[in-house]
């Protein structure tokens, strides 16, 4: 299979970017988008040219590093799959594939397909953790949690921090990401002790860095971890509860 690859090239955050066109031959339909980029980079290196900069790590869909935009879709045309699991099987021989970085004002381009997603790190630093000392490991039944609560908390905790939700949202909102963190930590006994402080800190950073939620739901369709859309409601829910507690 031969593909015509239009890929975004940008030397740095302060330079203008442009698309470069290359032809890559010898591809197999089962290859992922990242493996196709590997083949392109081998071709560029052999020709003495600069390879395309992009991020990846596990390539198993669990690290969140590989976020790019493929043919105008965050990660690629298949819903709820990271770029490392998007395959070439849907493309015909000689087709054109369009690759660019995640597009959001909150994610400035660092180089080529790599963007700065440190805004998500700021959210985690604001409260996406548990700082309470739990002492030694308690017995399994010391803090009883129903199976339904545990499963729901795990659904929200599945987020891999890829930033697809922000790039897919017309407003650049991080409500799915922030809401997933707020929801799963508020449902568990020990993290819930910091619920009010966590909500205030994380929502403040969310409002400062990212846009408001558009309520269109693009975030859930792009999310590789299939975080429930209900996570976006957790942001305003936790905001309201924190406000009520402050008044009390």
UniProtKB/TrEMBL annotation:
E.C. number: 1.3.5.1
Name by which UniProt lists this protein: Succinate dehydrogenase iron-sulfur subunit
One GO process term, biological-process aspect: respiratory electron transport chain
Reaction(s) this enzyme catalyzes, per UniProt: a quinone + succinate = fumarate + a quinol
4Fe-4S ferredoxin-type domain residues: 150-179
Cofactor note: Binds 1 [4Fe-4S] cluster. Binds 1 [2Fe-2S] cluster.
Cofactor(s) recorded in Swiss-Prot or TrEMBL: [4Fe-4S] cluster; [2Fe-2S] cluster; [3Fe-4S] cluster
InterPro entries the record matches: 2Fe-2S_ferredoxin-like_sf, 2Fe-2S_ferredoxin-type, 2Fe2S_fd_BS, 4Fe4S_Fe-S-bd, 4Fe4S_Fe_S_CS, Beta-grasp_dom_sf, Helical_ferredxn, SDH/FRD_Iron-Sulfur
Coiled coil: none
Family classification: Belongs to the succinate dehydrogenase/fumarate reductase iron-sulfur protein family.
GO molecular function list: 2 iron, 2 sulfur cluster binding; 3 iron, 4 sulfur cluster binding; 4 iron, 4 sulfur cluster binding; electron transfer activity; metal ion binding; succinate dehydrogenase (quinone) activity
Keyword annotations: 2Fe-2S, 3Fe-4S, 4Fe-4S, Iron, Iron-sulfur, Metal-binding, Oxidoreductase, Tricarboxylic acid cycle
Source species of the chain: Brooklawnia propionicigenes
Listed PROSITE patterns: 2FE2S_FER_1, 2FE2S_FER_2, 4FE4S_FER_1, 4FE4S_FER_2
Pfam families: Fer2_3, Fer4_7
Taxonomic superkingdom: Bacteria
Domain named 2Fe-2S ferredoxin-type: residues: 3-103
């Amino acid at each position: 299979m031969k593909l015509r690859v239009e890929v975004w090239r940008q030397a740095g955050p302060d330079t203008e970017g442009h698309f470069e066109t290359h032809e890559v031959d010898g591809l197999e339909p089962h290859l992922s988008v990242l493996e196709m980029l590997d083949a392109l980079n081998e071709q560029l290196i052999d020709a003495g040219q600069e390879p395309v900069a992009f991020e990846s790590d596990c390539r198993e869909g669990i690290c969140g590093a590989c976020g790019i935009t493929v043919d105008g879709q965050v990660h690629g045309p298949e819903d709820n799959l990271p770029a490392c699991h998007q395959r070439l099987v849907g493309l015909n021989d000689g087709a054109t594939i369009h690759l660019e970085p995640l597009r959001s004002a909150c994610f400035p381009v660092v180089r080529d397909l790599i963007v700065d997603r440190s805004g998500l790190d700021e959210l985690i630093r604001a409260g996406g953790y548990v700082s309470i000392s739990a002492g030694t490991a308690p017995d399994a039944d010391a803090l009883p949690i129903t199976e339904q609560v545990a499963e729901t908390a795990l659904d929200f905790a599945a987020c891999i921090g890829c930033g697809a939700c922000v790039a897919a949202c017309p407003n650049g909102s991080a409500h799915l990401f922030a809401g997933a963190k707020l929801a799963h930590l508020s449902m568990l006994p020990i993290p819930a002790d910091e619920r009010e402080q966590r909500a205030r800190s994380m929502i403040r950073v969310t409002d400062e860095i990212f846009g408001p939620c558009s309520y269109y739901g693009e975030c859930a369709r792009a999310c590789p971890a299939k975080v429930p859309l209900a996570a976006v409601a957790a942001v305003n829910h936790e905001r309201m509860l924190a406000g009520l507690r402050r008044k009390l």
